[in-house]
């Protein structure tokens, strides 16, 4: 789903009231560019249906290019999308964000049902387990609830004060000396929420009651951040910003590769409130080296020259309304892709994340509340059980921002965490700046490594009314990028636009974006 994993990761910190720097998944424009890595940690780059940069940058790809630039401009801080190109993975089981390890027998899929070795899963759920081999009875008990299975039989006894017999369509069985039970029923018996990530072949189990209990009373430091943030959100803010970037993109591969520089800037001018922002953006791109490379390759047509000339400088208007969940974009640049350069193009974020079980409105309401704990409780209630990676990322946030994970460093509080998955290591940190008992600012940082090679770093810092950010990417032999930006905020009596003016032509591109991401 478009933007799902990265958008959800941003929601996790939205409750602080910070200016949210949206990291986005570029899968919607994967006909233009695909970046991925394999299980060995080798990065592979390819343009779908094309072999070189000049073949990718032709008129037939202009719609994808325009959409990419629009989304990057809208969400301000881009991050590459990584999708593993590998055989279908073995079945995994994830409990509260952690992958369970099965030492001597792996989960299996039988007739569309995932089965797991009974002792491993029940013990992971902190249940007491007993097995009577002579009559094939499997028994587990936890906090007053007991369940009894019988091998090769569909009748299951569940006793939680009242004994009930339930018929299931996935009876336990024995294979290679190991007894397997259906994981969904086993987990749901003890009150867990269970989902299935078909992409990663992962059963996702959440003990929401236990997660909430562990989180209660653990967010006093983040509550102070919310109070600090509210001081900025009480009135509309005039936002002025500037972003500079320089990148080098490989044209060709191997010994024939040539790194082509592209530099640019984006000036921002707009008004923002706690849930609405309207921005005017002026984008400038230096495409001289790229144009020279295309001319040398003999692939630059007169039409392409006209397009590139217009891409060197263009404006864009963006309206983001988190209350309605809709983002609107307007730019004459869209006409280059055969779109309407005078219309507003709309993306409905509610619809985009609804498939993950997330409720944008509920999260935003909780984020505007008085308690960070209440926001985290809402987060736990809406964790996406059909997306193992997003679920694990959000659970990391639930844990990382608890008081027990902050350390006092001088006048500041610092919380750091590291996560490893599929050869990728991600390290994140949040620093809360204080003066006595008062919060004076914050700093967030994230670094990604593929094996031991640094891949990307992102850092954002707010002190008073000034916010700065930097990002670097280093995909050796393919692309490097450095980005830096500054935003200044001052109180204003003006209000941002919440939607395009009455009578505007509005084109809904939500379905297109989601279908291209499918």
Short description:
The chain is an alpha+beta fold.
Please give the count of helices: 14
Overall geometry comes to globular
Largest sheet: 14 strands, mixed
Helix content: 25-40%
Q: How many beta-strand runs? A: 30
Write the layout of secondary structure elements.
Elements: H1 4-14, E1 34-37, E2 43-46, H2 53-56, H3 62-75, E3 83-84, E4 92-95, E5 98-99, E6 108-110, E7 113-117, H4 118-124, E8 128-132, E9 137-142, E10 145-150, E11 155-159, E12 163-167, E13 173-175, E14 178-182, H5 183-189, E15 193-197, E16 202-206, H6 208-215, H7 220-233, E17 237-251, E18 258-272, E19 276-286, H8 288-297, H9 302-311, E20 313-321, E21 326-330, E22 344-348, H10 349-354, H11 360-367, H12 372-381, H13 388-400, E23 406-409, E24 412-421, E25 424-435, E26 438-450, E27 453-463, E28 466-475, E29 479-491, E30 506-508, H14 510-517
Parallel strand pairs: 1-3, 4-16, 22-30
Antiparallel strand pairs: 1-2, 4-5, 6-7, 7-14, 8-9, 9-10, 10-11, 11-12, 13-14, 15-16, 17-18, 17-29, 18-19, 19-20, 20-21, 21-22, 23-24, 24-25, 25-26, 26-27, 27-28, 28-29
Helix pairs in contact: 1-13, 6-12, 11-12
């Amino acid at each position: 789903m478009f933007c799902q994993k990265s958008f959800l990761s941003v929601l996790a910190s939205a409750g602080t009231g910070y200016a949210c720097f949206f990291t986005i998944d570029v899968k919607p424009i994967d006909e233009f560019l695909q970046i991925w890595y394999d299980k060995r940690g080798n990065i592979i780059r390819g343009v779908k249906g094309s072999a070189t940069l000049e073949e990718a940058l032709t008129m037939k790809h202009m719609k994808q290019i325009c959409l990419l630039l629009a989304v990057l401009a809208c969400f301000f801080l881009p991050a590459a999308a990584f999708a593993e190109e590998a055989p279908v993975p073995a079945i995994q089981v994830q409990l509260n964000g952690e992958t369970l390890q099965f030492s001597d027998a792996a989960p299996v899929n039988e007739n569309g049902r995932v089965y797991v070795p009974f002792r491993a899963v029940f013990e992971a759920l902190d249940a007491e387990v007993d097995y009577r081999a002579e009559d094939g009875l499997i028994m587990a008990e936890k906090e007053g609830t007991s369940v009894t299975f019988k091998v090769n039989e569909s009748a299951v006894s569940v006793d939680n004060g009242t004994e009930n017999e339930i018929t299931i369509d996935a009876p336990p069985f024995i294979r290679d000396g190991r007894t397997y039970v259906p994981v969904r029923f086993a987990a749901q018996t003890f009150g867990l929420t269970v989902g299935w990530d078909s992409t990663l072949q992962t059963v996702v189990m959440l003990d929401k009651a236990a997660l909430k209990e562990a989180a209660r009373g653990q967010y006093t430091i983040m509550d102070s951040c919310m109070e600090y943030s509210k001081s900025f959100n009480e009135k509309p803010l005039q936002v002025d910003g500037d972003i500079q970037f320089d990148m080098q993109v490989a044209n060709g591969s191997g010994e024939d590769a040539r790194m082509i520089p592209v530099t640019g800037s984006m000036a921002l001018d707009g008004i923002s409130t706690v849930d609405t922002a309207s921005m005017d953006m002026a984008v400038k791109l230096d495409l001289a080296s790229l144009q020279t490379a295309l001319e040398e390759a003999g692939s630059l047509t007169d039409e392409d020259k006209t397009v590139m000339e217009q891409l060197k400088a263009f404006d864009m208007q963006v309206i983001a309304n988190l209350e309605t969940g809709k983002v609107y974009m307007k730019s004459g640049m869209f006409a280059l892709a055969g779109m309407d350069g005078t219309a507003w193009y709309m993306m409905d974020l509610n619809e985009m994340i609804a498939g993950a079980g997330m409720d944008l409105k509920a999260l935003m309401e909780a984020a505007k509340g008085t308690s960070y704990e209440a926001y985290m409780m809402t987060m736990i209630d809406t964790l996406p059980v059909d997306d193992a990676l997003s679920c694990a990322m959000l659970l990391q946030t639930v844990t990382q921002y608890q008081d027990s994970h902050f350390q006092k460093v001088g006048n500041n509080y610092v919380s750091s965490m590291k996560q490893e998955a599929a050869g990728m290591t991600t390290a994140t940190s949040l620093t809360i700046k204080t003066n006595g008992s008062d919060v004076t600012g914050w700093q967030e940082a994230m670094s990604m490594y593929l094996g031991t090679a640094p891949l990307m770093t992102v850092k954002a810092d707010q002190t008073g009314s000034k916010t700065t950010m930097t990002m670097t990417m280093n995909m050796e032999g393919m692309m490097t990028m450095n980005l830096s930006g500054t935003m200044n905020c001052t109180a204003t009596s003006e209000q941002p636009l919440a939607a395009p003016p009455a009578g505007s032509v509005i084109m809904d591109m939500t379905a297109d974006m989601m279908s291209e991401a499918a």
